[in-house]
Amino acid sequence: MIRLILNLPYSILGSLIALISIPKKISLHKNPGAVIVTVEKLWWRFGYLKNIRATAVGNLVILGPNIEHKDLEHELIHIEQYQRMPIIQPILYYIELLKNGYQNNKYEIEAYRKAGNAYKNNFNI
Ligand SMILES: [Zn+2]
Asked: Is the peptide bond before 32 cis (omega within 30 degrees of 0)?
């Protein structure tokens, strides 16, 4: 419970991102605890994020219209990472991203390995 609260600022940010992406369907996931929002369009994507299909922010998973097999599972691994390292997870993620890029980011490697999906040109964060 405390981990959910510690990640609340990120969950609020995730809620805002979901809201501007036009939510279509909202559901709850247990273990890891997460709110899953399927949205109409990830229109705000830019830069290295421009091809993402889904994302996890705080305790929210945002699934875009073009999700593929195992994308939800991938994002739930990121939710577990947020819960393992509350507050600092996004900072650790971006340090890792700057050091090693996306494909060699240890948090992405873990998410792809545990979810059983593979990196492609359009991907998950
Ligand atoms: Zn990822």
From this structure: yes
- Rounded to the nearest whole angstrom, what is the distance from the C-alpha of residue 50 to the centroid of ligand 1? 14
Helix axes 89-100, 71-84, angle to 10 degrees: 120
Residue 59 lies in a domain: yes
Rounded to the nearest angstrom, the distance between the alpha carbon of 108 and the centre of ligand 1 is: 5
Domain assignment present for 123: no
pTM of the model: 0.93
pLDDT per residue over 23-75, tens digit each? Answer: 999 999 999 999 999 999 999 998 878 889 999 999 999 999 999 999 999 99
Who contacts 114 (Cβ-Cβ below 8 Å, separation ≥6)? 73, 77
Quick check: is 121 in a domain?
A: no
Residues 6+ apart with CB under 8 A from 27: 35, 36
**Domain span holding position 78:** 2-115
What is the distance between the alpha carbons of residues 98 and 75, in angstroms, rounded to a whole number? 20
Number of domains in the chain: 1
Query: Is residue 125 domain-resident?
Result: no
